[in-house]
Specification:
about 260 residues, 6 helices, about 40% helix, elongated
Length: about 260
């Protein structure tokens, strides 16, 4: 039963006026909460809110973004860090542009909560060297990662398995550094398509490190044993020399017999 119908049937006129007033305030509050636009940005309505925050010298993601945001444009700012669940309330988001920032860190779960309806995510032209393994879990968007100083190793390879790279920029995702120097400057996908497995290099490097550690430990133990033996040998030699320097038992016995015969 609606508010107006309840007023007609049971409530006196003063209560009806109060009920309509409170209901209207609640409705306006919900609308304002859903449609609030950050002061530094510009918002427009296109079957959902388009939030334009490009080139605003932002250093972080604006708080209190409209919950019905469908496009969020944050390019050409100074954002360095995307925290966990930064966009968790934006269930209608379809396009997210974070290109041309100073991104160095994207926390695990940064894009958690975004719907499977996401179409594009642009992280190009930043300072990213690596990403957490589950960064793009359950995200079906086309992702742009071009023009970042990527370090090509096992974790990056596993991240790339979880996403759909934008086909137009896929060859611009290159190894700035790598576990082996020969892959520097090459597109990551071409290297992986050639059969290279960075995770094998990771395991080999780990095995070598363990071998070196074990060798160092064995060398230390061996050196200690040799030192212990030499030290004990030196003590034994000194002890023998001391014993040799003492009067012999036969000499003492002869002296004793001579003294007895005298008496």
């Amino acid at each position: 039963m609606g508010a107006s119908q309840r007023c007609r049937t049971s409530s006196p006129p003063p209560s009806c006026a109060t009920l309509f007033f409170v209901g209207t305030l609640l409705l306006l509050s919900r609308i304002m909460t859903a449609r609030a636009c950050p002061k530094i940005c510009h918002c427009s309505d296109r079957n959902g809110v388009v939030v334009q925050c490009t080139s605003r010298n932002l250093e972080s993601i604006p708080p209190n973004l409209p919950k019905d945001t469908v496009v969020l444009l944050l390019s050409s700012n100074r954002i360095r860090h995307i925290p966990k669940e930064a966009f968790t309330d934006l269930h209608r988001l379809r396009e997210l542009d974070l290109s041309h920032n100073a991104l160095e860190v994207v926390e695990a779960g940064a894009f958690q909560g975004l719907s499977e309806g996401m179409r594009t995510l642009d992280l190009s032209n930043n300072h990213l060297r690596s990403l957490p393994r589950d960064t793009f879990t359950k995200l079906h968007a086309r992702v742009r990662l071009s023009h970042n100083p990527w370090h090509c190793e096992c974790s990056l390879q596993e991240v790339l398995r979880e996403l759909r790279l934008d086909p137009e920029t896929v060859n611009e995702v290159s190894c700035y550094t790598a576990v082996q120097e020969e892959y520097v400057g090459q597109p990551v996908i071409q290297v992986l398509d050639s059969g290279i497995n960075f995770c094998n290099f990771h395991h080999k490097t780990t095995d070598v490190a363990m071998f070196v550690a074990m060798f160092c430990w064995f060398s230390m133990v061996t050196a200690y044993i040799i030192y212990y033996i030499k030290h004990n040998q030196e003590d034994a030699r000194r002890h023998m020399e001391y014993l040799k320097s003492l009067p012999s038992t036969s000499h003492i016995s002869k002296d004793y017999d001579t003294a007895s015969s005298v008496f």
